[in-house]
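quick one, 836 residues, struct below
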Amino acid sequence: MELPNSHFRDYPVEFKEINPKDFPMFEVNNKEIIHPNEDGYINDSMQPKIQLGEKNSVVINAFVGCGKSYAIIQTIKEYYNTTDYLIIVASPYVSLVQQYVDDIHDEAQIPKEDIYNYTDLGRDFNIPYLGKRVQVLTANTLLGNPGEDGFKNSDIKRKYLNDLIRYCEENGTKAIFVYDEIHDAIQNFKEEFIFNLWKWKDVIHKNFIISATFNEASKIVIEYLAELTDKKIQILESERVKIPHKQSKLYLHFSSEHNFTNETFEIVKVVEDLLNRNKKIDILCYSKSLAKSILQDKKGIGKKLKDRFGQLNNCTSELVSNQRTQNEAPKNRYNNDKCNIGTNFKTGVSIRKENHGFIIVLPPRSTRMWFRNKYGIFSGGINDIIQSLARQREKGEIHIILPRPDRFDSTSLENSEMTLEQINVFMEAYNKVQFFSQREEPVKYFPLNMQSFLMSAFYHNELVNNVAREIEHLSSYLRTDLTRLDFPSYNLFTLNRSEEYIANTFKFFGEDIAAYVTYCAFTNQFMNCELVEVNYKTELFFKENEIQKGLHKMFNKYFGEDYYHSLMYHSNFKMIYSDFRKAIFENFNLRYKKANSDNWTTINPFNNSNFEVQLIRFIALKFFANSFNHSVTNYERFRDLEYSRSEYFLDSISVASTINLTEVNYSEETKKKIRIFHILKHFRDKLIENIREYSSNNLSFRYLKNKPTGVFNENDTLLFNELMSLIRYDELLENSAYEFKRTTSLNTLYTRLIEDNFEFTSDRLPTGSRLHIKKITSIKPLPNPYRVINLLQPAEYTNIDLNENWIIQKYGSIENYESNQKSILDAIEEFTKSQE
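---
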């Protein structure tokens, strides 16, 4: 397909801004803009804007790959060389602590003897921590967060922090705090843990709060931290400037598989291609189970990776019930010298490999749930994607394996900065990769900076309004000595639930993560990579006499129950046939091999009549189940049985007989197709009328003459000409799935009518005549028109409105859905007014 991003060369990169108006209760100077240098780094522009001696909280909002960590380490160097401050670096993960220690030593030239790695606590008692100028620990340790399964921070960690605070107080030492990658530490800033930060209130001098992917919750974290620095905030925000010579090549591989495994076609194909081109490889998986299936694979891509790279590096967490069984150094960490497979290097890690292929496997459709998606490491939504892409620091290749996204609401793009031409280009490309089913609510575009309006509308209109009377009543009710009963404030909701709400409610913000990735790739939103290739057609292989078996396997693997229930139960036969046939030819490359051949040929629409016929049978068996007129046993469902021209004609004649063309509001094309079978019924009836009886003393039978002498009249000639002119309106006949186009005369038609409508034997009249006849043993009956393959009536949904069905399952009721939509519309209106 033609790449759409060529039409978005100068399209602005959208990102989450941090603005002074976000903090109305704080002292915030005007936002200062950092200008990256020609290589895309921000250090030179950033350093002059930092006032080392001023007590405040500095927010650094800079894009991925611009050297944020290097720049802050240079700031640490300045503090180390010019003051006696204690510098505390809070990492979001224990896996990154050693990396910070090494980088601070290497890039700031600070002696390792003056840097303390908190993971030595309780492990090496010979290493003192007091008196060391730089302390590197985790944010959860700093805030006293014991984790999901703990009740309090360990005693040794408590003593460590209390000793540092006492050291500062006794020596008059001020403390500098650096919160790098703050987006990954937000869960630590719960109300109950903030009190641990207040222990530092008398010694804190400055906070540095750094991220490329701020969100609404991080604004509450900024407020918590800035309150400790006299409510003073400085905002430094970098320009989003792409550096083309540093951008990696981005490849999107859309997979139709319902679940991703180590045998998924696209994963296997990408790995094998990178191996063939001698690339270094790392694979970031959405789930631990997928990573382990690759690591433990003994015959597929896992074995091939081991054969090339030796022992694979397992980058999945070794925690048991969120705890290490012993106090030992963490393992399973990313290693730039190995092939890494796992889940724990989507953030913080710098992949510095030449000739590198970085594979990112997103969650498949099987992980999508009604209320909370099981997206593994990508459960946080769109920021997880941006962070993952940024791991590759050297120019290379990034291959994303992703499911097909739901359809996109093109009208919502009118709220973007796209021109009409760009909208058309985007939609043309997007429609090629979208999921088969049209059941789901479409993806709608929302500006990133609109998230706060969407959350506010939900909180106030959906949550608060639902219990507004009760809140008001309790506010005037005296509850002395009773348990606190305060409805959570908007800020606490934002801190604790906002990202979960956003990522699981709005498809564009993470509920359909594939849609967001597709949008960003098509519109050049990613800073460190640019789209160069899109693959969306999986290869499927069908063997002669095994087509039914292949179709069943394909349906279960790529379409599944969701597709089955959404269309099979709620559409007529023509709808499901047309939809399914369109889906497989548009989204797969089909290959076919004859039984006695080693060559695979391409199956294109109607170039393989055997495949077309078996496809019709497959849909009929799915659609009708046991009520199909041509029913078969369970064993025969997987066999390539015939669905002949005779059966197709009889089915269609039966259906056409129920349709009065003067009474239906069908398209002219549909009416002309139906007319074909009205005419064929006329000729069928004509032949039945012309059946002759032969009877003698010992013999009796019915017959038709071999030649139509005396059967047809002038009107039949006109009908024949009309019939052949209408053949082009039937795809199966026009494209010779059934041979009929070469019916050149009434004589030929007569022969085919006998073949299709009667059971017969060839013979001569037993009276000495040389007249050849067809002995009619039976007339093939017309089947029940409601239990046959019906390709005549227009494709349509039946029984239930799909959107209504989806709404009820998702929201519980139409009323709940309408309330939710009103909240969104209110938010859009409020956001629009704020931009004016």
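The chain is about 40% helix and 15% strand.
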